[in-house]
Amino acid sequence: MAQATSQFELSSPPEDAISALTFSPTSPTRLLASSWDKYVHLYDTNAGLNGSKLTALSHAAPVLDCCFGENDGVLFSGGLDWLVKQWDPETGAETTLGSHEDGVKSVCYNQEIKSLISGSWDHTIRLFDPRASTETSKHHQPHKIFSTSTINHTLVVAMASRSVYLYDVRNMSEPWQRRESSLKFQTRTVRCMPNGQGYASSSIEGRIAVEFFDASEESQKRKYAFKCHRAVEGGVDVVYPVNALAFHPNYGTFASGGGDGIVSLWDGMAKRRLRQYQKYPASIAGLSFSPNGKYLAIGSSSGFEDGNDGGEFPPESVKIFIRELAEGEGKGKGQ
Amino acid sequence: MAKKKKRANPEVEELLARPWCYYCERDFDDLKILIAHQKAKHYKCEKCGRRLNTAGGLRVHMEQVHKEQLEAVDNAIPGRESIDLEIFGTEGIPESEVAAHNQRILSAFAQREADRRAGSGQPGAGSKRPKIDISKDLDPDEIKKKLEAHKKAMAAAAQGTSGNGAVPGPQSPGRSASPGQGAYEVQGSPPQGAYPQVQATSPPPFQQGVYPIPQAPGPYPAPTYPPQNQGPFPPAAYGQPPFPQQPMQFGRGGGPPASFNGFQPQQPQHPSFTHNPGGFNPPQHNQFQQGPPPHVQHPQHPQRHQVPPVPPLPQAHQIPGLPPRPNAPGLPPRPNFNNPGMGGMNNGGFGRGGPSGSGSGGGGGWNQPPAHQQQQGGFGGPGAYVPPPQGPSQQFGQPQQPQPFSPHQPHSQQQFGGFSATMQHHPHQPHAQNNGSAMGHQGRNDSSASLTATGVEGVKMEIPDTSTSNVIVPPTEKKKDEKPKRETKMVYGDNEISPEEKRALLPRYEYHPPKSSVEVATTA
């Protein structure tokens, strides 16, 4: 219950809404944040009292997603300037891997094939080889790509019109599985389970679905969805979009962040909610667990996701919190 | 269990009695479960899993064991995270929050009732409505007030012997006035003419008769009504204030006149009535615009007036509980009759009487009939009077219905064996009538809820100070706050365009990548 003082706010947050947050897969104190302020910000969350900003890379337009590559020295980002960029935070050297024909909504790095995968509103998925800085393949999809996530050899592509395609990255010529989201509304985010068994997806209608890769009947029976991030206001059930999902690297539990500014921890196996944190000042835009599972980065910023659709998004609502998880916090039942 | 119960349409009292958790607004079947819930959800140490009993306990635990500062209660709804409140079970919850919680329950309940009624297509279904009213009227505080008032009234009555007869008279008018204007008027008007004599002569009988009546109500109501009703109503009816005052008056003017004096406020009305013996109806209407039922009944009233006129006054007093409501809502006169407390009493009695009498709801009109019965009972002493009342009673089957209301019936039955039979009928009739009467009740009951158009004003007037008014009013306002059938509103409702795309269209993010976008980007 008690909310210990195990959380701090990063100094010098982005100056505009946050689009994505991600911890380095290897270093528990490196946090990358992309923002609508046209920059990708790299933070050291362990420096000083409130962390420090190490560097930033600029795009010509708002950045929609970012991710780490093979190590802390390789970063990727994509944004509204249609470009997919790679850069080295140490030297500041940047390379443009390629260009889409519309905004780049999602980027993710696959360790198995050492490739960067980008998804765009131009209905394509493109793979890049970071070492050669070249585009290796392009795959047309039926709809705009809203979110991608990859684990092992599997790539999950969530698109508009509730379409979800599963790919085997070793054979990208054909989708491995074509699925329709089990959620009735627009897919917001998709994230793969660390154990490679399945994925969780969220929609704009306060709901999260947990599904499994295995197409067998008994495996598919295990899939489920549940409601969350809702509130009753003035007799009306207000439903917020679920913007962010993040799996705990060790426990396999996951956190969800909604337009209501609330972050919840879920045990996907036991189908239980583990924790619900105090409300954050604005819509949760990004969530990420550090690779050791000790920290949870929470990015909050106001926008359409929390009903602020007037076009004015107060910069002061943009905050990044680093929450230190207590021993066993985030651990599922029976683990 | 809880859900089951809820689906089974529990009574409001049950809902209100359920223990609930301050931090998350959840309610439980049992206090033990609530405490277990609080320990597990709100008072559990996140470091070591230890469960404490209160937020303060947890704070101390975290300070001493983990050297951490507790800042807020976990899993609490926004605004309730404070650790300053020492809450254990339902103890320690701020009064204001308790009131708000009860309001929410009541409003939810009202909403559910309304929905159910709408759903079942029984707009008038009185049974449910009345129940609600009763529950509201039965607010413990109000009952207490009434009980106190009753005790005082009884004491006062005991002191003033001669006044007794007079007292009942005044009270009765007030009460009767409320339910059935006609009745009220009847009493007033007829009494003035011929009855005064009766009263004067019969003072002793009246007193006896009257007092017994209150008692009688007790037994009657008991079966149909909750015990509370019995207690509070009779007392209320007796109106503490009226008694003392009336006795005084009586002493001065004599038995019959006394009653009038007591009614001074009413007097103006009465005079009019007296003047227009035949035209009672019109005056009544004017006065009791609010009470629709009375109007309908008016035609009947004349008859009644003729028959029971004299007795009614005393009886009315006894019956007060029943009729009072009608008077109160529709009629401004009430205040005159009774002290503020009386008004409240009447109201309470009203609600009770209505529900109990019909089961579904007693119409304002019913009250009047009861008055007649009462008259019979009260006058039981005077044999001569008896016959006339009977006639009316029969004629006014509906009016008699009010009898069910405890006080009247007992009297009538005891004194008039024949009436008992009629009485039995009454219950049935009332039900049939209930539709009409029920409407009136609903209006009153729901007035707070703004459901009814008629009689609402009156109700408010009367009930203002009582807890019931408070309870009722909120539901209207908060009705939609509660659970049943919630509308859903999606904060982001565009199912095709993602929020990012929308945002990207904003002028300040506008970006047109040059055809040689790659080059531009690299230069940047």
Automatic annotation (TrEMBL), chain A:
Keywords associated with the record: Repeat, WD repeat
Keyword Kinase attached: no
Please report the residue spans annotated as repeat (WD). Answer: 56-97, 97-138, 242-267
Name listed for the protein in its UniProt record: WD40 repeat-like protein
Q: Which residues form a coiled coil?
A: none
Keyword Repeat included in the entry's annotation? yes
- Taxonomy, superkingdom: Eukaryota
Q: Which residues cross the membrane?
A: none
Matches recorded under SMART domains: WD40
TrEMBL record, chain B:
Entry keywords, A to Z: Metal-binding, Nucleus, Zinc, Zinc-finger
Low complexity composition bias: residue spans:
408-420
- Stretches of Gly residues bias are at 341-366
Predominantly, its location class is nucleus
SMART domains listed in its UniProt record = ZnF_C2H2
Pro residues: which segments have biased composition?
214-226, 321-335
UniProt lists compositionally biased (Polar residues) regions at 261-275
Q: Where is the composition biased (Basic and acidic residues)?
A: 130-146, 476-489
Q: Where is this region: Disordered?
A: 112-498
Task: List each copy of the C2H2-type domain by range.
Answer: 43-71
What's one GO-annotated cellular component? nucleus
Q: Which residues form the BED-type domain?
A: 14-73
Q: Cross-referenced PANTHER family, in alphabetical order? A: BUB3-INTERACTING AND GLEBS MOTIF-CONTAINING PROTEIN ZNF207 (PTHR23215:SF0), ZINC FINGER PROTEIN 207 (PTHR23215)
Q: What is this protein called?
A: C2H2-type domain-containing protein
- Organism in which the protein naturally occurs: Morchella conica CCBAS932
